[in-house]
Write a structure and sequence with these properties.
alpha+beta; SH3 type barrels; Pathogenesis-related Protein p14a; five-stranded antiparallel β-sheet; three-stranded antiparallel β-sheet; 24% strand; SCP domain-containing protein
C-alpha cells in the first residue's frame, strides 16, 4: 500500500501544537477491505514493536483502511501504513467494506477464554487432563498467528518446540463472513474454531485415509498445558506445550479410517 502525507495549513498548525502530523491513505491495495474509525481524539500511532511514533498521528473521527492485525501485550493493533499501527482502543469500530453494518468485532482475549473452556469440556468427555492458559502462551500464540503470511500456514517457523494447530481463519474471515456463519460473539468464534479443528475436513497436510488427517483433533484432545489461542487478520494459532500421553495422541494422529472413536461436545456446554 502507498500512503501519502496530507499537507495542509491545519496539519501544519497541529504539528506546532501537538508534534503530530495527520496522515492520509491513497492507492491502497484493492485486497485491503477492512476499515476502522478513530474516536473523538487524535489517535497515536505505533511501530510493530509497540514503540510510539512521535511525529505522526490520525485525525479524530476519520476512517482508515486496515491491513495486518495482531495482538501484543494484550493490546490489539491495526496496521494503517508501513510499520504504523493504531491501537484498537483508539477506535470506535472495525468492519469490512462488504458488510458495513456488521457490528461484532473479535476480542482475542475473550475468544481464548471461551476456547479454553470448550477445550476442557472436550478433554473431560474424552478422559484427558484439563489445561490452563497463561499470559506467556497467549502472547506466543498471537505471535505465531501474525507470523503466517497469506494463505500459507507454516509450522516450520515456530521459534520453539511447541504443539500447534493453525487455521487460515482470522479477522478477515470473521468480518466478511461472520454474519453468514453465525459468528456474532466471541463464544461463537471459539465454537467455530474447536468444531473446525475437531472435524478436520480441510486438513491441508494430509487427506482422508492418510496418517495425520486427524492431527488437529489429536492436538485438541491431547493438548498440553498451558495452551492459548492467538489470532491475526488471516490466521489463528492454537499453541501449547506437548502432551505427556503420546500413545493417546498417536492413536488419533495415525488413524486412517473415516472417524476416530472420540467424543465431541455441544455448543451449549459452555455459556
Amino acid at each position: 500500500m502507498k500512503f501519502n502525507k496530507l499537507i495542509t495549513l491545519a496539519a501544519s498548525l497541529t504539528i506546532a501544537l501537538t508534534g503530530a502530523l495527520f496522515v492520509s491513505q491513497q492507492d491502497a491495495s484493492a485486497e485491503v477491505t477492512k476499515v476502522t474509525s478513530t474516536g473523538n481524539s487524535t489517535s497515536k500511532l505505533y511501530t510493530k514493536d509497540g514503540d510510539l511514533i512521535t511525529n505522526r498521528a490520525l485525525a479524530p473521527k476519520t476512517n482508515w483502511l486496515v491491513d495486518r492485525i495482531f495482538t501484543h501485550n494484550d493490546v490489539t493493533y491495526y496496521q494503517v501504513a508501513t510499520n504504523e499501527y493504531l491501537k484498537s482502543t483508539s477506535t470506535t469500530r472495525l468492519y469490512d467494506k462488504s458488510n458495513p453494518n456488521f457490528k461484532y468485532v473479535p476480542n482475542v482475549k475473550r475468544i481464548n477464554e471461551y476456547f479454553i473452556k470448550y477445550l476442557n469440556v472436550l478433554h473431560a468427555a474424552n478422559g484427558t487432563p484439563a489445561v490452563s492458559t497463561s499470559e506467556e502462551m497467549f502472547e506466543y500464540a498471537n505471535h505465531r498467528a501474525y507470523q503466517q503470511v497469506g494463505d500459507t500456514m507454516d509450522h516450520s517457523t515456530r521459534p520453539r518446540n511447541t504443539a500447534e494447530n493453525l487455521y487460515g481463519f482470522g479477522f478477515n474471515f470473521i468480518l466478511k463472513n461472520g454474519i453468514y456463519k453465525g459468528m456474532t460473539s466471541d463464544r461463537d468464534v471459539a465454537w467455530y474454531l474447536i468444531k473446525g479443528w475437531y472435524d478436520d475436513n480441510n486438513n491441508a497436510s494430509a487427506g482422508p485415509g492418510e496418517i495425520g488427517h486427524f492431527g488437529h483433533r489429536a492436538e485438541l484432545i491431547y493438548t498440553g498445558t498451558p495452551a492459548a489461542i492467538g489470532m491475526s487478520d488471516n490466521s489463528t494459532s492454537l499453541s501449547s506445550e506437548w502432551t505427556n500421553d503420546f500413545d493417546g495422541y498417536n492413536s488419533i494422529y495415525e488413524y486412517t479410517g473415516t472417524n476416530p472413536n472420540t467424543n465431541f461436545i455441544s455448543k451449549d456446554s459452555v455459556k
